[in-house]
Amino acid sequence: MMEETPETAVKQQSFLGRADARQPAARLGVAVVRDLVSAIVTGEVTPGSFLPPEAELCTHFGVSRTVIRESVKRIEEKGLVRVEHGRGTTVQPSTSWNILDPVVLSALADNDDSLGFLDQLAVVRTALEGSMSAQAAAVRTDEQLAALRAAFTTMATSLTDGEAFQQADADFHFLVMTMSGNLLAASMTKILFERARESARFTSNATEAAFRATLDEHGRVLEAIAAGDSAGAEACMRSHITEAWNRRRLPTATAR
Fold it and tell me: Under DSSP, is residue 115 helix (H, G, I), strand (E, B) or coil?
């Protein structure tokens, strides 16, 4: 961490005045990391600028220098800052961020006022899950198909129970990913899917009518996989993810 000098003072950007200093609490480091990540991804602290001096961060968060140093180390590991001894902690451009890091993903989704990030997430999911659905149709076993049918049945019997329906929905998608055998694509997509589910924007419009439309779309994916129709399974999954996001997406939001 750096001490403020005339050279660095000009480039420093401080977000410390926006809230009262944090009082000591459990898991302080987690809270500090979360707030620092949020300040960076929202642009409160812009790329190329320096984080405030260590002493200011300690005062604001109400924590020790050790907690601040460990927290800065964590966000450096996420690609958000670069620590240069004797110079300071510089905020990095978004091209350096580890977008798949859970904390970074959550901050991006939670602060995505234009829904541009969630739009991008839907595009990535469409490509990855479409491909995995095609592979699942080609290699699925009878046992896997039975499990997928069971998840679909649970969805069908949970149309009036939002929480149960959305869990069965997730189970269906995760089963298709597992059936594909593509561990890398499945791992990446699960991270994206789980973080998106934490966003209120992603789970908006959770109505029975929306659930019924989702159920019909899942039914078409299931039929294609059961028939061993790879092209059909891919097309149905791509269509489902696109249409499901269009139902959730706020009509007044615009992509960046």
Answer: coil
Structure tokens at 20: 């009262």
Task: Kindly state the tokens that stand for 162.
Answer: 């939002």
205: helix, strand or coil: coil
DSSP state of 50: B
Q: What is the pLDDT of residue 196?
A: 75
Strands 81-84 and 88-91 turn out to be: antiparallel
User: What pTM was estimated for this model as a whole?
Assistant: 0.76
Tokens of 175: 């089963």
CA distance to 102, 178, 199, 202, per residue, from 106 (Å): 6, 24, 8, 12
Long-range contact list for 170-173, CB < 8 A, 24+ apart?
170/197, 172/148, 172/218, 173/129
Per-residue model confidence as pLDDT tens digits over 68-125: 999 999 999 999 999 998 889 999 999 999 988 989 988 888 887 777 888 888 999 9
